[in-house]
Amino acid sequence: MMVWRCVRPSWRFLVTISAVTLSLFAFLHFKPIRARLDIYLLQAQHQQASLQVSHPIVLKQRRCPSDFADIEGDFLFVTVKTTKQYHRLRLNLIASTWISDALLFKGRNDKPVVKVAILSDAVDDFVNTMIGGRMVKSRCPSSHNKTDLCCKQAAEFDLYYGEPKLAKWYCHFDDDNYVNMYQLLAELERHDASKPLYLGKSSRGMVKLKDVISGNEKGRVAFQFGTGGAGFCLTRVAMKQIKPKVSRTTGGLGLEGLCRKLPGLSDDVAVGYVTGFYKIGLTQVPTMHSHLEKLSALSQDDIRKAISLSYTRYKSYENTIQLSAFHNVTPSDPTRFLSLHAFLKPKECSRRKRAK
């Protein structure tokens, strides 16, 4: 009996422990604190993903279309949205530069490595033939308001979901993007495509919005999104995971329906919202560039390493990459894309062709 009295805790100690436990439980379940903790956890996931990317796998250097013979066919599916008013100014430009080059990449058994589909409010016969009949007329309104852009992004997703064999990667780019396909494929190869991944470049920090997906009106979704103007990519695993909420093939309006529930939500933010709902964090890719950046500040080395580039020209305002120090500058090239294409084109590929 004396031993028990020596080790038995006092009632004051038990009351103190109980009070501390209850206080900690209440603290952690207090909604503002809980929401903040969720954001910290997401940020930790993003930092971990960035650390993984900072130690890239050493890959074979590919500089010509013939260098992809060891890659599985249907590796990448790319969609671009445009509108009829930009067919001449934008679509013809990218179709004759980076898109036409990307379609030359052949993988194992001579299967295409990259497929490109274009969504517009009208079909250009020449471009449609060039990309294998994958230019599709959208049923969405041709305006540029945010809900209509969400409708178009949902249609872009459905172009991917409608393929007989889903590519390992899906990427979206705008019609004012130049895409260095060699750099893009090299970046994608560094990542484990068997995981749900979302790659892009955010133009702002963490966003937190009310949860309109699960039906929990008091819930919040914390996320980062890849700026649409720089492009973004998702693995096949991630695309399958988000399909019930972004595709119209599963019933409803897909991504457009989500944007209607959250008025003012743009298409790229909506994609980040859905990936955030499924706990798929954004992996930052610094070499994806949009018109939101000061493009003239990019060095020659930055431009060589860039996955995507863009431009803005409006009245007297101009935001383009600077090519004055480069060779093959075309004076009548306001977007700099023709000059850029000539600058990036490897000369050894032409020599290989002549040697054959």
Q: Determine the number of helices (DSSP H or I, runs of at least 4 residues).
A: 13
How is the main sheet built?
7 strands, mixed
- Tell me the Rg in angstroms: 25 Å
Task: Kindly name the structural category.
Answer: alpha/beta
Number of extended strands? 13
* Dominant shape: globular
Which ranges are low-confidence, i.e. pLDDT below 50, for 5 or more consecutive residues? 1-6, 31-35, 37-58
Provide the succession of SSEs: HHHEHEHEHEEHEEEEHHHEHEEEHH
Mean pLDDT: 84
List keywords for this structure.
alpha/beta, disordered N terminus, 356 residues, 13 helices, two-stranded antiparallel ribbon, globular
Secondary structure elements and pairings:
Blueprint: H1 2-7, H2 11-28, H3 31-53, E1 76-81, H4 87-102, E2 114-120, H5 125-130, E3 135-137, H6 146-161, E4 169-174, E5 178-179, H7 181-189, E6 198-200, E7 207-210, E8 220-223, E9 232-235, H8 236-246, H9 255-261, H10 267-277, E10 282-284, H11 300-305, E11 308-309, E12 312-314, E13 317-319, H12 337-344, H13 347-355
Parallel strand pairs: 1-2, 1-4, 2-3, 6-10
Antiparallel strand pairs: 4-9, 5-11, 6-9, 7-8, 12-13
